[in-house]
Design goal:
single chain; alpha/beta; Rossmann fold; five-stranded parallel sheet; 11 helices
């Protein structure tokens, strides 16, 4: 079996050398293959590799390594997807029935060509957990070691990355200032009480939503998201998943930028509503944990 491992600047060394060693030990005809006449590549950690030659038109398996996606490095998978130079290669390989495979974020190169639509694929948990996985369509799944719930899209592979790569949860939080807390609680032992207080301590403007209270966290309480008279960046949900779709509709109605479901809360319908409204969507993550991990604080304007 003829196997080509695609190599490019910024790829992760292990993602290419690992499969190369295993497959050669199994006596397969496997090569490090470059696009065009590029003779060598500089990997993400500085190692320079010499390609065995150009990609073969009759390769039966084509493998894409990862590297350089999560940090949006100027070289690596993110840059390769932006360049679109692999699209004709993948289309031809797919047309001739070749097996297409990837390691880690190399899946993003395959996704950008549209070949992962309605297919399962494994990638880095940082991609599956909170980013838009380019090229995956509604109904498909990504799998990761973190068992995170993926976001799904159905877009043209020929658009720019900015059109179909969703922001990560920490990017959503970093770009927010005002957070409406649906399910805010006066009980500091509940997440609806402790998390908003923690966010407030980090400088976020917190707007509590609760039908039975007048003031919480020193702020006026509103009965629903629809009653809030000011602009909302994130609608943060501390209610059961069954309530999430209606809250998503309210968030869309007031023009909120993002819908965020707290830990252990997931809703396909809420996701669908949020994405249809153009909102960022995060589920099964805690705003306080994300703020702490990424040291997000807000300062007065």
């Amino acid at each position: 079996m003829r196997i080509d491992i695609a190599v490019f600047d910024g790829m992760d060394e292990l993602d290419a050398i690992g499969p190369l060693e295993v497959l050669r030990r199994a006596a397969f005809d496997v090569r490090l293959a470059a696009l065009g006449a590029q003779g060598s590549v500089r990997c993400g950690h500085g190692l320079v590799l010499e390609a065995d030659g150009e990609l073969r038109d009759d390769a039966e398996v084509l493998i894409f390594p990862g590297g350089g996606w999560n940090d949006r490095a100027p070289i690596g998978t993110h840059a390769e997807v932006e360049s679109k130079r692999w699209l004709p290669v993948i289309e031809k390989a797919s047309a001739r029935g070749a097996i297409l495979a990837s390691v880690c974020t190399g899946a993003m190169i395959l996704a950008s060509a549209g070949v992962l639509r309605n297919r399962r694929a494994t990638t880095h948990h940082g991609v599956a957990a909170s980013t838009l996985v380019c090229g995956w369509s509604s109904g498909s799944r990504t799998e990761s070691s973190q068992h995170a719930s993926p976001r799904t899209w159905n877009i043209s592979p020929y658009r720019g990355l900015a059109d179909f790569v969703a922001r990560s949860s920490h990017e959503v939080l970093q770009n927010a200032k005002t957070i409406a807390i649906v399910g805010a609680s006066r009980d500091p032992n509940k997440a609806g009480g402790s998390v908003p207080a923690g966010l407030q301590g980090r400088g976020f403007r917190v707007i509590p939503i609760n039908p039975y209270a007048e003031t919480l966290f020193g702020e006026k309480v509103y009965r629903s998201v629809l009653d809030v008279p000011e602009k909302i960046d994130i609608v943060d949900v501390f209610r059961p998943a069954a309530d999430a779709p209606e809250i998503a509709r309210q968030a869309a109605a007031v023009g909120a930028k993002a819908l965020w479901l707290q830990l252990d809360i997931r809703s396909r319908e809420a996701r669908r509503i949020a994405e249809a409204a153009g909102m960022d969507y995060v589920e099964d993550e805690c705003t306080a944990v994300v703020a702490s991990l990424h040291r997000i604080r807000k300062t007065a304007a």
